[in-house]
Structures are given as C-alpha cells and as structure tokens.
Amino acid sequence: MTLIEMLMAVSILVIIGGSAYFAFKTAVDAYHQTEARILAAQRSRFAMDRIVTDLGNMQVSLQDPELALYTQDVPSQSGDQDMLSFVTLAKTDPDPFLEQLSSFQAQDAAQAPLPLLSDVQRVAYLVAPEPQPGESALNSGSFQGGLTDGIRDEQSGSYALFRVATTVLDPEVVIGPFLQTGTIPETDENGEPIYVDIATLITGLANFNLQYFDAEAEMWNASWDDPESMPSAVQILITVQGEAQRAVSTDTTQFATQSQQPVMPSNSMTQSTMVYLPASATAGGGAEGAPQGGP
After folding, report:
1. H/E stretch holding 235
2. Taking 80 as the threshold, does the pLDDT of residue 111 lie above it?
3. With CB atoms 3.0 to 4.6 Å apart as the test, which of 65, 107, 118, 212 could cross-link to 224 if both were Cys?
4. Within 13 Å, how many C-alpha atoms sit on residue 251's CB side?
5. What is the pLDDT of residue 124?
6. Angle at alpha carbon of residue 259, lines to 290 and 127, rounded to 5°
7. Which residues are registered as beta bridge partners of 178?
8. pTM for the model
9. Calpha distance 158→265 (Å, rounded)
C-alpha cells in the first residue's frame, strides 16, 4: 500500500465517521427534545385534570359571599399568570370525618387540637416562583411579598402552578391574606386551627391563562368581575417548558376571536381545554348561549 492509497483510505474513514457522528448526534438531540415535550405534556395533563375536576364540582351561590367565584387576570412578560378561586367538593381518601374521629381518639389531651377536615373546600390556583429542590411549597418563600403586585418581576425565570386548598370557605380569612402577604394564618377568629394544603402541580410553567365565557353577551372575558352572574364555561390554557430555566418571551395570550399567541420555546408543550360549569354553578346561562367548541 502506497502513501497516497493510505491517505485516501484514512480520508474516507474520516468522512464516514464524521457523517455517522452527525447522524447519531441529530438522532440523540431529537430523542431528548421529544422526551422533554412528552414530560411537559404529562405535567400539563396532570394539572389540567385536577382543575377540570374541581371546576366540575364547583359550588357557587350568588347570595353567599363565602361561595363566590374570584378571578384575577395577571399578564406578565413571561406569560399569563392568572388566579382562580372557588369552592368545590374535593375527593378525600380516607373519609375526612373518619380520619378526624380517629385522630381525636388517638390524640393526647396535652397536644394542640387538629384542624377540622372536610370535603367541602375552597381552592385557589395561582402562579408563583418555583420552590427549590427538596423544599416544600409552604416553606419555600415563593409567596413572600404577596401575589397581587400586578405584573410580577422577572427575577426568577422558573415558575410553578400551585393549588391551595382550605376548609375555610370565607376567602377573606385564608385566601385573601395569602394573596396579599404570602402568609397563612394558623387559627381563625375563634382560635380554631386552620387546615391548608399547598400542592405544586406544575414546575417549569411558561403560561397559565384563563378565559370566562359570557353566555348573554356571547364573548370571552379575561376575568369575571360580575357578582350577579356566573360564566357558562371556563377555558384553560397551560404551557409548560420542556427544560427548566428556559427564558420565554411572550405577549398576553388571546382566546376566541383573537388569534395572537405567545411565542414559546420549541420544546414547550401547550394544552387547552374548555369546561362547562355545572348548571347549579351558573346563573342566566342556557344552552342557546353556550359557546360552540374551543379555539
């Protein structure tokens, strides 16, 4: 074998090896991107199912402020971060009354009383900075400083969707102070302990937008501020980032007749659904004014 033949053979091997490497790298990158999108879709689907279940069990009374629906439209530079609070029937396992009875029987008289459990709870869905790994949502400090400051600062590029549940139905006792100060009172006005559960539904949240359908006006609203009526349906849009700490540049998401959509990373996953509220939770809405399909 001459030197020229050897150089040609080495060159061919380098070309074949380089082509194989780039093909393999492209396949691996596509696999990781697809895996990230699948994981984002799973996280989004879990949160979506929880919200749909709570909305399906909503208990609303226009005459009782404790059973009122409260909403907030909170746009920001990194996507919508809306808030929704209402009373619902939460499935509990084991039965809350049996659990409370057994805890009372096993409780030492010297110990502090336990909060009363119930399957009728007020829930609130809200967005806040993502807690650190291994840190509970309640003690993470994500809610310090309050959550109603309008457009939030972008000092943290990673947000999470939280579900706050409490057996205190009056929003002015737990949910209101929590949104204003980021802290939860330990006891109510009677000195009884308060049951509060904060669950992190989604990490790496990019967008959480809620829209409310007015059956009489046949239009979608960014928030619901009419205390004398209820929306016929609620539309939910959730966008989850496939990778954590990925910056997102977006405008406020628009529904229905407005087609402007936020620009999300290629590895993000967006899911949307529309929930028709139960007849007991609506007032003045009928089938003739119901929305036809979703965007």
Report:
1. strand 233-240
2. no
3. 212
4. 6
5. 92
6. 80
7. none
8. 0.70
9. 14
> How many angstroms separate the CA atoms of 109 and 117, rounded?
19
| 189 has a pLDDT exceeding 50 | yes
- Could you read off the pLDDT of 150-172 as tens digits, one per residue? 444 444 458 889 999 888 888 88
C-alpha 102/C-alpha 291 separation (Å) is 47
Question: Distance between terminal CA atoms of the chain?
Answer: 69
Q: How many residues does the chain have?
A: 295
What DSSP state is assigned to residue 276?
E
> What would the pLDDT profile of 213-267 be if each residue is shown by its tens digit?
998 888 999 999 888 888 999 999 998 876 544 433 333 333 333 434 445 555 6
User: 26 is written with which tokens?
Assistant: 């492209």
At 277, which amino acid appears?
L
Alpha helices in 57-193 (DSSP H): 96-106, 175-181
Question: Tell me, what amino acid is at 12?
Answer: I
SS3 category, 12? helix
- Burial class (CB within 10 angstroms; exposed 0-12, middle 13-18, buried 19+) of 5: exposed
Contacts of 220 (CB under 8 A, 6+ apart): 211, 212, 213, 214, 235, 255, 256, 257, 291
Contact 120, 169 (CB under 8 A): yes
Provide the phi-psi class of 161: left if phi over 0, else alpha when psi is between -120 and 50, else beta: beta
User: Domain extents for the chain?
Assistant: 33-289
C-alpha to C-alpha distances, 73 to 1, 33, 147, 275, nearest whole angstrom: 76, 32, 12, 18
**Do the strands 233-240 and 196-214 form a parallel or antiparallel pair, or are they unpaired?**
antiparallel
- Dihedral sign from CA coordinates of 106, 109, 111, 114: positive
Helix residue ranges, H only, 57-172: 96-106
Tokens of 241: 């980032």
Instruction: Give dist(CA 160, CA 147) in Å, integer.
Output: 13
Closest residue by Cα to residue 171 from 184, 155, 161, 160: 184
Phi, psi (degrees; rounded to nearest 5) at 163: -120, 115
